[in-house]
């Protein structure tokens, strides 16, 4: 019998393999799982060079697959000071000075995620750093604050400049910029000056981000925006032998995308490396409820006069999606409103009639509201529901906006994971990082513990096993890799994660205390939590 490189024993394996759902030991040789079974059975794979890992009775699963992330933009975003936790001017000073010190060669100091009311003038920022330009963005992306140096570089300190209709540079009584920029056109006057990282820097930033993904047990992601250039950024990492995550990259189709431009999607689909591959297309059908851009069936609860148009008409969507379908691409569409969900399901139904039924596994992303009559259509059409549990307001007390926009009438059909799964849909789970943190345990926490917003709402919580399958087996199915990964199974890729606890012994409300102690990708240990 050929010996194993690594053996993990004394574990509680949740395999996702229906023919062998529970086991206590597994053996890995090269990048494949060669055995899944008992502590006794694994012994025969041992020789003197085999590394033995004791699972201490804790949970072992297949490596986690996040079905919705924005990896490259997120990695670049991590290259800025994180201001989400900043509460005072003193906090801000500390964070920015530390960032400046750790990034001495960065010409700019960029920070993101700050709350309102902490700074409002350029002088306050000058006091922190004056000789390098500072740009800090509000958490909602609608306001930024900059120092004098940045205003000078943009040429807007003393004089007005034609910046476009959607933007205000706040000025004092003498016409001098105060340091606050409101909305995109004003913010971009400064933001556009910040250098984009070059390809070497991008690779470094991707590596750093991927390390953090691995530390939360993630070994694969479905990226949700992309083009050939982005695909090549990941491919460069694989070519350099430095890729520690599997990345599936779509071609982003915008309303202005022409039929000729789809040749780029076809080229991307030909890229099928070990870790990096194309083969899908991404659309947006609407925006988000918070900013009144979700395409709704019934009027907004807090402003019934708002009229939202979908980003693609049914005819336009069907035409472009049908071409993608004929090319064999998988399609994923962002839909937050129930009107968007319905329009996309209608489109999928039309293209199925036009092109014939095939194993297409087209998908709908987010599905924040879904009318009950649309829920069974996922199964009927073979469409996957890709949902992110941590986007749901955890409780009514902790939400100020989303539940007001939608109103109590819609709450029973909001973030309806349970109902959609019960209607027969395959549920793929993910984070939508950077919209929300990528740590799967945060999504588990919401899925297991979310409170009802009203006593009469149905319970939409998922079970722990459903959470695990949504991050492993069902996510692998979602990307046509169910015969390669997503299960702890003989012959499958050795993507594995060992946790700090037996997940089934942890109280649901304590799930956030769980951490991976070992993450393996392609037979290599890419995160060693005990080291
Ligand atoms: Zn997204």
- What's the rounded overall pLDDT mean? 95
Distance between the termini: 31 Å
Overall number of strands: 24
| Weakly predicted, low-confidence segments | none
Bound molecules: zinc ion
Helix/strand class: alpha/beta
Bin the helical content: 25-40%
The biggest beta sheet is recorded as: 8 strands, parallel
Please tell me what the overall shape is. globular
Major sheet strand order: 8-15-16-17-18-19-20-21
C-alpha Rg (nearest Å): 24 Å
Q: Per DSSP, what share of the residues sits in E-state strands of 2 or more residues?
A: 15-25%
Summed up, the helix count is 17
Question: How would you describe this structure to a colleague?
Answer:
- By secondary structure, this protein is of the alpha/beta class.
- Helices cover 30% and strands 22% of the residues.
- Strand 2 and strand 3 form a beta hairpin.
- Helix 2 (71-77) crosses helix 7, helix 7 (199-215) packs across helix 8 and helix 15 packs antiparallel against helix 16.
- The protein is globular, with a radius of gyration of 24 Å.
- The chain binds zinc ion.
- Residues 68, 70, 224, 432 line the site of zinc ion (ZN).
């Amino acid at each position: 019998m050929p010996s194993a490189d690594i053996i993990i024993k004394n574990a509680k394996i949740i395999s996702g393999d229906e023919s062998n759902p529970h086991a206590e030991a597994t053996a890995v040789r090269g990048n494949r799982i060669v055995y899944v079974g008992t502590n006794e059975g694994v012994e025969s794979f041992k020789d003197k060079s085999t590394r033995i890992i004791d699972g201490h009775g804790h949970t072992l699963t297949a490596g986690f697959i996040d079905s919705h992330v924005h990896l490259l933009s997120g990695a670049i975003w991590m290259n800025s000071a994180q201001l989400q936790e900043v509460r005072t001017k003193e906090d801000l000073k500390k964070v920015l000075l530390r960032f400046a010190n750790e990034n001495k060669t960065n010409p700019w100091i960029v920070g993101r995620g700050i709350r309102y009311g902490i700074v409002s003038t350029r002088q306050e920022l000058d006091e922190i750093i004056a000789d390098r330009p500072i740009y800090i963005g509000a958490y909602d992306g609608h306001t930024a604050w900059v120092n004098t140096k940045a205003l000078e570089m943009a040429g807007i300190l003393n004089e007005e400049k034609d910046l476009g209709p959607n933007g205000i540079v706040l000025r004092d009584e003498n016409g001098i910029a105060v340091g606050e920029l409101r909305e995109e056109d004003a913010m971009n006057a400064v933001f556009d000056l910040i250098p984009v990282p070059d390809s070497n820097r991008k690779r470094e930033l991707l590596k750093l981000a991927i390390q953090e993904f691995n530390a939360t047990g993630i070994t694969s992601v479905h990226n949700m925006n992309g083009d050939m250039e982005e695909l090549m950024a990941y491919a460069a990492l694989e070519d350099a032998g430095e890729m520690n995550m599997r990345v599936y990259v779509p071609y982003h189709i915008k309303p202005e995308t022409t039929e000729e431009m789809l040749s780029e999607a076809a080229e991307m689909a030909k890229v099928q490396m070990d870790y990096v591959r194309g083969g899908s297309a991404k659309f947006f059908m609407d925006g988000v409820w918070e900013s009144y851009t979700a395409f709704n069936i019934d009027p907004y609860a807090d402003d019934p006069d708002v009229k939202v148009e979908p980003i693609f008409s049914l005819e336009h969507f069907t035409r472009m999606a049908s071409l993608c379908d004929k090319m064999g691409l998988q399609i994923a569409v962002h839909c937050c409103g129930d009107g968007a969900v319905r329009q996309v399901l209608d489109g999928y139904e039309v293209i199925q009639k036009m092109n014939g039924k095939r194993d297409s596994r087209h998908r709908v992303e987010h599905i924040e509201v879904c009318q009950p009559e649309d829920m069974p259509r996922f199964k009927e059409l073979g469409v996957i529901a890709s949902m992110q549990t941590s986007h749901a307001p955890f409780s009514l007390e902790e939400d100020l906006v989303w539940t007001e926009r939608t109103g109590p009438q819609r709450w029973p059909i909001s973030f309806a994971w349970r109902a959609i799964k019960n209607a027969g849909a395959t549920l793929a789970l993910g984070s939508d990082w950077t919209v929300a943190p990528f740590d799967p345990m945060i999504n588990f926490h919401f899925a297991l513990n979310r409170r009802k917003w009203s006593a009469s709402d149905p319970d939409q919580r998922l079970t722990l096993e459903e959470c695990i399958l949504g991050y492993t087996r069902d996510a692998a199915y979602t990307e046509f890799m169910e015969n390669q990964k997503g299960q702890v199974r003989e012959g499958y890729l050795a993507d594995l994660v060992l946790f700090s606890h037996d997940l089934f012994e942890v109280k649901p409300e304590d799930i956030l205390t769980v951490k991976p102690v070992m993450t393996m990708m392609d037979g290599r240990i890419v995160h060693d939590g005990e080291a």
